[in-house]
Amino acid sequence: MQHQYHPQRFTIRQIGGIARKVGTVPVGSILRLEAGTKIRVEAWLPRDYPVYRNGRFTKKRIAGGHMAQVRRLADNHLFTISDVFLVNAPEA
Fold first, then answer.
1. 81 burial level (CB within 10 Å; 0-12, 13-18, 19+)
2. Above 60 in pLDDT, residue 23?
3. Which of 38, 55, 69, 91 has the fewest Cβ atoms within 10 Å of its own Cβ atom?
4. Would you say 79 and 70 are in contact if contact means Cβ atoms under 8 Å apart?
């Protein structure tokens, strides 16, 4: 299972004898949403948006939560969802 290091929401875990800030929902977690749907967290995507300045595009980061790329286990559908829905979701 992979961990997201130095995220905004974190728990402290001992990894290799060192205390590290680790994301509260690790990649690979299988969770159950409120509708009863089982999903697997596959990646964390920072919230970016493009800005056109001085004749070129640049990326800007949006403050706040992250988006998770998840896969619905019932039909393998891949979609993104806000971390707000995943933080309190029970493990399946």
1. middle
2. yes
3. 55
4. yes
Tokens standing for residue 75 = 């039909």
* 38 bridge partner residues: 32
Encode pLDDT of 38-71 as tens digits: 999 998 887 778 889 899 998 887 766 678 899 9
Query: How far apart are the C-alpha atoms of 21 and 73, rounded to whole Å?
Result: 29
Q: Residue 9 has which token pair?
A: 């929401």
Cα–Cα dist 68/79, whole Å: 8
pTM of the predicted model as reported, rounded to 2 decimal places = 0.66
